[in-house]
Amino acid sequence: MTKSILIDPSDVRKRTVLKSVEIPINDYVPDPALEAARYRRENLLRIFRDMAYIREFETMLDRIKKEGVYEGIEYNHKGPAHLSIGQEAAAVGMAYNLTPEDFIFGSHRSHGEILAKSLSAIHQMFDDELTEIMANYMDGKPLRVVETFSKHTNMKELAVDYALYGTLAEIFGRDAGFNRGMGGSMHAFFPPFGVMPNNAIVGGAADIAVGGALYKRVNRKPGIVVANIGDASMGCGPVWEAMMFAAMDQYRTLWDKEIGGAPPIIFNFMNNFYGMGGQTMGETMGFGILARVGLGVNPEAMHAERVDGYNPLAVADAIARKKKVLEAGDGPVLLDTVTYRFAGHSPSDASSYRDKTEVDLWRVQDSLVSYREYLKENGHADDAQLDAIQAEIKERIIKVTQAAVSLELSPRVDTSVDTIGGMMFSNQFKDRMADGTPEVLIPKDESRLKTTLAKHRFGLKDGKPLPRLQCLTYAEALFEAMIHRFYEDPTMIAYGEENRDWGGAFGVYRGLTECLPYHRLFNSPISEGAIVGTAVGYALCGGRVVAELMYCDFMGRAGDEIFNQMSKWQAMSAGVLQMPLVLRVSVGAKYGAQHSQDWTSIVAHIPGLKVMFPATPYDAKGMLNLALRGTDPVVFFESQRLYPEPEILVEGGVPTEYYEVEMGEPALRREGSDITIVTIGATLYRALEAADELQARYGLSCEVIDARFINPLNYDKILASVRKTGKVVLASDASERGSFLHTIASNISQLAFDFLDGPVAVVGARNWITPAAELEDAFFPQKEWIIDTIHERVLPLPGHQVTTVQTNDEILRRYRLGV
Amino acid sequence: MATVVTMPRLGNTVESSIIVRWIKQKGETVAEGEALCEVETDKATLEVPSPVSSTLLEMFFAEGDDVPVMTTIAAIGAPGENVESLRPGGAVSAVPAAAPAEPPAGRQPAAEQSSAPAAGAEVPVVGVSPRARSLAKQKGFDPVGLAGSGPGGRVIERDVLAALAARPRMTPLAQAMVSKGEFVAPPKGSGAGGRITSKDLSPAAAPLPAAMPQPGAEDEVEVVPVRGVRKVIAERMLASMQTTAQLTLNTSADARALLAYRKRLKNSPEALGLQKVTINDLVHFAVSRTLPLFRDLNALFEGDQISLYRAVNLGFAVDTPRGLIVPVIRRADRLSLRQLAAEASRLAAACQDGKASPDDLSGGTFTVTNLGSLGIESFTPVLNPPQVAILGVSSINLKPVEVDGQVEFVPHLGLSLTINHQVVDGAPAAHFLQALGQNLAQLDVLLAL
Predict the structure, then answer these.
(1) Same structural domain for residues B296 and B407?
(2) Which of A103, A135, A444, A700 is most enclosed, with most CB atoms within 10 A?
């Protein structure tokens, strides 16, 4: 309990001085004799081999990109190629001491890391493991291509060709690539070797990697996680948020000791001193030495070190030492791995921002040259042996390149059918993401469920409202869905701001604190980016997670995580990954411009998200149940206006047992024959008031449909209604301009044109800031807006006196002024 | 407001005529009916009369110009009126001034209006909602011109429903006449219970000053000269009624076999070419097989002689934009159902396109006219002399029939046979109608013939 940590004023107000730990800079002292004993000759040569693989692979891409030909193989590669020539020692040193179950997440410049980690894993794995992976991954598709050209004498050599080919075919956008060409150069990855998603958003991997480390901790999986991100990503908010999230005290102060402490994460800044053309040391940042940042995060300064990334043995040594720190639960770790890229940022980079002198200085110290000298000087190999290694590498890469450019051997996915559409969602339903007994503190029937189950499940009796406190509310219906899945799925965790003790700012989780150990329900820092980003990492590693944003408005703080990460990794992995992540988002009111916005339309625009917005307690439970059993990312909108409301629309009320609402199916809330009103969210109740008044005053029979789903959405019910009535008005609390309602309206116009008796009218909130609570009636759609809109634009009502302006001229005026 | 003079359609197949000579010159006063110019087709030369008495303000074409029919060729009105807006757009003209380099002046204001920023201000186009339009179409009703009750005067569903409800009840013949657009109905008729009969109708083209006393009412009347096909129809119909003794017999025939067989054809393999066979084709087939046994009705009466035909040359009525046309299926009695249907389809298309040849339109020995698709339950077909009989086909309606002491509702096809009682007696006509009904009821058996 947080209550047990006392904040003592006499302690925190005491005069003293903060003494910080020291940060080692390039602390590694080479000792050839010791290294010979520690690594043995064969492994020292393997390090050279792996570096040479990366160098040749990247050189091949450099030629293809710049000259269109490599060793006589012509190819025009349209996509990107951010090469890491010069950074080989850092990649190979990083991967050397990682085991196959250790994960790496990387950046747009991660070809080298993919190869280094794959080669390291292949070296450590048994032949039968490799055989099984290659035979089963994508049903053996990449393997079948590799077998057509690979010259190998053993399984490991075949696996090396496989790793090279799978990566290159992915870069070239081919169906047999590791991600069927859906990821490409900047996103390629291969989970069986511990190579997890690489991210083209600078620093994007940081919070996702922390989520991966969280997954390992919570689910007691072996291994650590390395986030390979660039020095320039230190300027990114989500990277800081990721470090804050990884360094929370609670892992050691509040979580069960048995969990093992902090998530095992290394933030490995591959420091090549440039963010595109900006110099992080001396120009665009102020840290001087990147490792210094560790001092700002926790008392251990994140065990930060600067490591010489031009010496593979220095990096391997650092990783081995830091792995021990992480295994002891004392993470996170920050490494400032110094390296340098000879290649430009990308092929279009003319290196105008740096001097040739500087590049030449680094070339003199090229790790491939200096490490080669080191091997020769210390008698591990002679030139002939090393030349032979490089010659074999070249031969393999030529064969791999020939196969990867060939459209016969390596076709692209068939876009004449909806192949990519089929990858957007996994569309599976799983009661639990892994076997096991869910960790709980008390039996479910001793929980708050006792109270909620005993309440009235329907809020009306003989048409009269029952006392509110005795009725099950929308918030409690959500609670019932949450507790059900917590007791079913051992991988399920939930977190966000004030989620524990407080039960979330609106009490949805009240009663869960008593049921769940800390590692399944905890408070996060106020880091919306990291809340969503870590959840993305947790989910794509295989765990079910519910992240909460206290207000919809805070989605802006998690923009990249929602728009680029949560939504896209299923498709970018071509179905290799699933994303059982439900993001609960609460739509506010009364708190003004930054706490009262309905942003359903913004997520509706992003491919790859399922979007739901229940408007009744029945749907709150049935739709959250649906979301929580699925394997797809769901943005689950909730209405703060509705949290305290009982069920008054669905006959029979909220079932006590488990049930699900049908995916994408709107709900018919009232049958009618003269006009259709379609709503999203809490506006439903205003629409029902309007329907009552239209019936009472004008004898107009309204059909009211609650869309409740934004994506996917089945239009059948809406269209059937419009075909019947010929008239339709849509309403929601989202600001009118760009509202998702306009998408529905446009589809109705196209699909039911001949049945329309008037234009499809949209009633949204004003295109303003949300004003003070007392002025909200002027901002959010009211009953009168709906009636006046019908009168002005669809069906003049005899004798009707408008009280608001809903004319066509008003639409023009608002748009002319942009308000 | 100036009156336009259009190039008349001087025959069914005439698409353009040449202006041979302007008789009146620009600025001259002209009297109604006075010749304005001479025009020539490949068949004849005739004069174009002035529709009103006023001043010839402008001629839009020069002598020698080949002008498509129905194109405005001149404007007549008060001196000083600007008639440029009446100038036709895309005509080929030898007059340099009429060269289509400049857009017609009349288009300009409209274009400005539609692009004006204040488009929310009343747009003078009266809209009809898609739903109102489809309902009106379904009911054979023109919604344009209805007073709309929707926003901005848009005609919406309820306006069409109200108009339909307010439409006076008419006899089937009156309804058929009105639906063709040639006649207008008064608000109340002289028939039983105020029903409007054909006698109450007035020609749509005739000006009705008493009925429309409001200023500007002339804008609401379109004056159509009675020429061409319309003129032929007018003369023949009147002649038919005046020169023959017409008697109509009504009955209905069990339509179950007809409907069932039609359904089978619709579902037949496309390659057989039978999917588009209509109910009307099946009636034609039954008539063509029944008629040879009743030669009294397959006959022509020409004053002092009656010609009884063995061959059935079957005329059938086709409604075209230009009016009623009756093409003839030759030797219908020898054609298979498929051939019959194909020939009917070909002829109907030719009539619609105005490309039917004189041979297509002559030589009929018996005629079938069908208003069933318009929901007509019974009507009196008008003879096509010198033919002595015409069969009217009405809609299929459920009719209570006693079967084993129980009432069953059986679909029946309405049949009305008009005969010239001068030469055909009632009994043989009734026998024919009875036999036709039986043949339709057992169409499957008849197909063996």
Answers:
(1) yes
(2) A103
Q: What is the ipTM of this complex?
A: 0.73
Range scoring the smallest mean pLDDT among A347-356, A704-713, B405-414 = A347-356
B351: confidence class by pLDDT, cuts 50, 70, 90: confident
Residues B149 and B97 placed together within one structural domain of the fold:
no
- Average pLDDT score over chain A: 96
pLDDT one-digit tens code per residue, A537-565: 999 999 999 999 999 999 999 999 999 99
Active site residue B431: no
Q: Look at residues B70, B105, B140 and tell me which one is the last residue of a structural domain.
A: B105
Burial class (CB in 10 A: 0-12, 13-18, 19+), B207: exposed
Q: How far apart (Å, rounded) are the C-alpha atoms in residues A40 and A62?
A: 33
The answer to whether residues B328 and B254 belong to one domain is yes
Q: Is residue B113 part of a domain?
A: no
Answer whether the bond into residue A264 is a cis peptide, omega within 30°. no
Residues B327, B317: Cα–Cα separation, whole Å:
7
pLDDT at B45 > cutoff 80: no
Domains of chain A: 32-405 (3.40.50.970), 444-639 (3.40.50.970), 667-817 (3.40.50.920)
Chain A hits for B146, Cβ within 8 Å: none
What tens digit of pLDDT does each residue of B382-399 get? Answer: 998 899 999 999 999 998
Which residue among A753, A757, A796 places its CB closest to the CB of B132? A757
Question: In this complex, do B151 and A793 lie within 8 Å of one another by their Cβ atoms?
Answer: yes
Q: Which residues of B touch A793 (CB under 8 A)?
A: 151
**CA–CA gap between residue A157 and residue A496 (Å, rounded):** 46
Are residues A754 and B131, on separate chains, in Cβ contact within 8 Å?
Answer: yes
Interfacial residues of B (vs A; Cβ cutoff 8 Å): 117-121, 129-134, 149-152, 154, 156-157
Q: Measure CB to CB from residue A754 to each of B119, B134, B152 and give the nearest one.
A: B134
Q: Do B129 and A757 touch (CB under 8 A)?
A: yes
Cross-chain CB nearest to B120 (options A794, A796, A809): A809
> What residue type is A153 in one-letter code?
T
Task: Give the residue on B whose Cα is nearest the Cα of A749.
Answer: B130
Q: Report how many domains make up chain B.
A: 3
Chain A nearest-CA distance from B117, in A, is 9
Reading the block at residue B57, the tokens are 């303000």
Residue range(s) defining the domain that contains residue B144: 127-167
Strand partners, A692: none
Indicate which CATH number applies to the domain containing B345: 3.30.559.10
Nearest-Cα residue of chain A relative to residue B153: A796
Closest-CA residue in chain B for A811?
Answer: B120
Q: What is the pLDDT of residues B186-241, one digit of tens each?
A: 666 777 666 777 777 777 654 434 443 344 445 667 777 777 677 778 888 888 88
B176 is a domain residue: no
Cα–Cα separations (whole angstroms), residue A537 to A328, A545, A561, B405: 22, 10, 10, 79
Let me know if residue B175 belongs to a domain: no
- Res B179: pLDDT: 65
